[in-house]
Amino acid sequence: MNISEKLVADFAANDVGFITTVPCKQLAGVIDAVEAHPDIRHIPANKEDEGMGLCAGAFMGGTRSAIIMQNTAIGVTINTLVTLIQYYRIPLPMLISYRGELREPVACQAEMAVHTKALLAQLNIPTYHFHKLSDADEFDAILKYTFMCNKPVAILTDASFWGGYGE
Amino acid sequence: MIRSEILKHIAPILDGQLAVCNIGIPSQELHAIHDQASNFYMLGTMGLASSIGLGLALAQPKTVIAIDGDGSVLTNLGTLPTIANNVANNFILLIIDNGSYGSTGDQPTYAGMKTKLEDVARACGCENVIACAAEDTGTTLQAAIDSGKQTVIVCKCESGNAKMPVITMDPVTIRDRFMGAVKA
């Protein structure tokens, strides 16, 4: 089982049956594994706030949901996180590609990277940073924590975690 | 007819149905006209009623009616391709199209000008798209429920708002009683 399959297996083991994704090269393997998993419904979204709306609806329909997106989406979704996910106390694991960190080839990505943790802290969103492969050992516990406390929780996965960015 | 008159007109049809209602005055009007546990009122996050409704419809078998507005659909226009490509036959998107942003002072929307949302929905791949006059909303909605097919209804009406109180119910209460109705 590769790391993408392990993360998706952890989602499934925690009864996450509905995942929305917005594409990211770094997360392409995870998105493929979500699509391939027989117990998970994969709904690609056009924008991350739309994806969070889909997740909120699925959760209220009785299916645990999650979103997979880039860290740039934190900038896009602040209002949705605050007035939908947090205000109605909806648990939402957010598996996030942490672009703009070490080994990043695209300079513009660093511009959002420097704001990512500060924004998450300002929003009081529990945040975990996967830098080494062994960090993912906690993913199962993070998912359990998310559904225990009914909060959005951010899991930032950087290029080092994914073994570089194709260099 | 204005939106509140349409909501009064369709209230008997909405009775007992899962309804996800658009932010602002639409939710205030529905709350005042026909409050029920199976109404999910959006207190924030303009544009996501259709997304919440689709997610809900995909996750469980009961009929879901998302009551949206033209301005809110324009805010989240990416919702229409997602609806088209992830067909939930228990999902109805009812767009009350009054050509204006009612909750913010009735500023005109592009849907009241050149843009026809029924054409946009069809171009996005939605099947069963019906444009109707305000007074036909009830029969159109009932037919959509009876059809058991995903349907997008664009109901054309006049701009205007009824004066209704702000919803003071706590969001967690709204969500909790709504989830109880989903499970019932």
From TrEMBL, chain A:
The keyword Lyase is assigned to this record: yes
Gene3D superfamilies membership: 3.40.50.970
Gene Ontology MF terms: carboxy-lyase activity
UniProt keywords, alphabetically: Decarboxylase, Lyase, Pyruvate
Record carries keyword Chloroplast: no
Protein name: Sulfopyruvate decarboxylase subunit alpha
Species this chain originates from: Loktanella atrilutea
SUPFAM superfamilies for the chain: Thiamin diphosphate-binding fold (THDP-binding) (SSF52518)
UniProtKB/TrEMBL annotation, chain B:
Coiled-coil ranges from the UniProt annotation: none
Domain of life: Bacteria
Biological process (GO), any one: small molecule metabolic process
GO molecular function list: carboxy-lyase activity; thiamine pyrophosphate binding
Pfam family, one: TPP_enzyme_C
Keywords on record: Decarboxylase, Lyase, Pyruvate
Ranges of residues in domain Thiamine pyrophosphate enzyme TPP-binding: 40-154
InterPro entries reported in the protein's UniProt record: Sulfopyruvate_deCO2ase_bsu, THDP-binding, TPP_dependent_decarboxylase, TPP_enzyme_TPP-bd
PANTHER family in alphabetical order: SULFOPYRUVATE DECARBOXYLASE (PTHR42818:SF1), SULFOPYRUVATE DECARBOXYLASE SUBUNIT ALPHA (PTHR42818)
Protein's UniProt name: Sulfopyruvate decarboxylase subunit beta
Lineage of the species this protein comes from: Bacteria, Pseudomonadati, Pseudomonadota, Alphaproteobacteria, Rhodobacterales
